[in-house]
Design a protein that fits this description.
The protein has two helices and no strands. By secondary structure, it is mainly alpha-helical.
């Protein structure tokens, strides 16, 4: 037996199909970016509250979550 998988991969997608996929519609990308923005604001609020409350570890972790969410939201919007 071969260790290499043949045919569709788990999840029902063939790796060759990923290159040929159509970009998402602009309205869907905008909607997902808006959702990411709301979540990033919530993470930012937790970071600020934790910092003021004297919990630096929680503040740093929430700030990292905020930055990662902004990054993914921007990738979704601009990359499609």
């Amino acid at each position: 037996m071969s260790d290499e998988a043949e045919g569709p991969q788990p999840g029902g997608r063939d790796p060759d199909d990923l290159e040929d996929r159509e970009p998402r519609p602009i309205i869907e990308r905008i909607g997902m970016a808006v959702i990411a923005t709301v979540i990033a604001v919530l993470f930012g609020g937790v970071a600020a509250a934790a910092w003021v409350g004297g919990e630096p570890f929680l503040a740093i972790m929430a700030a990292i979550g905020c930055l990662m969410t902004v990054w993914v939201g921007a990738m979704t919007l601009f990359r499609g």
